[in-house]
Write a structure and sequence with these properties.
The protein is α/β, with parallel strands linked by helices and 347 residues long. It is built from ten helices and twelve strands. The longest helix has 21 residues, at 147-167. The chain starts with 16 loop residues before the first strand and ends with a helix. The structure holds S-adenosylmethionine and iron/sulfur cluster.
């Protein structure tokens, strides 16, 4: 029997993607994100995380993205991947509907051993975040004291992580390995072309993210946003680009280089909001579910995590009631109402 269609929300958007944060802690301190130094109290247990993913898959989720804080700091990551892999290999388990398990990481702890272990445990894709190649700039973007030297060491670690992931079998050509960069005017915009050069050389898709007004701590101001259109224009002036058709449910718009040397993507949630086909639910490491990256309040799933039937009813109801269209409703470059922190939601 084929599975029931996913529930749709108030704007007829189907449930499709779960983004699960494993920790609020981070080993970097990017000022645009502002992570906690302490872990959240009441983290979900492994059995609760697996139940949550299984129930979400029963409701139509086909993609799971693990995030943070920095997910490689979490000792739950490998056991979770292994438990999910066991479920995915059993056709009778809703987890078998999971087409893709992906990870977003700052790459600092992505050693060759870790990359191999992640692959062996069933991880399909890795996105590594890196905002600059120049030491002083990267140190500022990552909130590190110590300037150029410390930044150069960071770049070395992250590029080492990229290489390790590639050697472990995360294939850039099939989207198994990507690079994320947040661009802030006056801080790291000098790094746009160097990052594009690096991504082209390594055959990795570079995803350029507009600086977002997520959370309440980062002092977001509209004049620091570089629009996706400007980023594309600047790269196109150096290496001509051709737009690709937008995929349904995708947050990014994508371009291919006319010379055939790979792709770039842009995530333009400030200037070109994409609420229309948003299919994501975000769950924090302590079990708070958010139906929008910009929501101010979540729903505490912890009282329901012990039982699949109850959890299914709660998630279905949450999705059906969902009406969020924050990015489209806000007036472009304006400051906004309070909302949850990025380091809890994980992007
Ligand atoms: N620590 C991991 C990392 O940095 O990749 C995973 C968590 S991080 C919150 C996920 C993504 O969100 C990163 O690519 C990061 O650059 C992006 N991000 C964080 N704060 C942001 C902001 N205010 N605007 C745009 N992107 C942001
Ligand atoms: Fe840490 Fe990622 Fe936030 Fe930077 S963006 S502080 S690496 S969680």
């Amino acid at each position: 029997m084929s599975p029931a269609p996913p529930p749709v929300d108030q704007w007829f958007r189907p449930f499709g993607v779960l983004r699960l944060s494993l920790t609020a802690r981070c080993n970097l301190a990017c000022p645009y994100c502002c992570p906690d130094s302490e872990e959240l109290p009441g983290l979900m247990r492994l059995d609760q995380q697996v139940r949550l993913v299984r129930v979400a898959c029963g409701l139509g989720v086909h993609t799971l993205r693990l995030t943070g804080g920095e997910p490689l700091l979490s000792d739950r990551l490998l056991p979770l991947l292994e438990a999910l892999a066991a479920g995915r290999s059993n056709a009778a388990d809703p987890l078998a509907r999971l087409k893709e398990v992906a990870l977003t990481t700052n790459g600092v702890l992505l050693t060759p051993e870790k990359a191999l272990a992640l692959r062996a445990a069933g991880l399909d894709r890795i996105t590594v975040s890196l905002d600059a190649l120049e030491g002083g700039v990267v140190a500022t973007m990552a909130g590190l004291r110590g300037g150029q030297r410390v930044g150069e060491r960071l770049v070395e670690q992250v590029l080492g992580g990229l290489s390790a992931a590639r050697r472990a079998g995360f294939e850039p050509a099939s989207g198994g390995l990507k690079l994320n960069a947040v661009m802030r005017r006056g801080l790291n915009d000098s790094q746009l072309l160097p990052l594009a050069t690096l991504a082209r050389e390594r055959g990795v898709e570079l995803r350029l993210i507009e600086y977002m007004d997520v959370g309440n701590r980062n002092g977001w101001a509209p004049d620091q946003v570089i629009s996706a259109a400007e980023m594309v224009q600047r790269i196109d002036a150096r290496w001509p680009l051709r737009p690709l058709p937008r995929e349904s449910g995708a947050t990014s718009r994508r371009w291919s280089y006319e010379d055939g040397r790979g792709l770039i993507g842009t995530i333009a949630s400030i200037t070109e909001p994409f609420c229309g086909d948003c299919n994501r639910l975000r769950v924090t490491a302590d079990g708070q579910a958010f139906t929008c990256l910009f929501a101010s309040e979540g729903t505490d799933l912890r009282p329901f995590l012990h039982n699949e039937k109850t959890l299914e009813a709660v998630l279905r109801g949450l999705w059906r009631r969902r009406r969020d269209r924050y990015s489209e409703e806000r007036q472009g470059f304006t400051a906004s109402a309070p909302h949850a922190e990025m380091a809890y939601l994980g992007g």
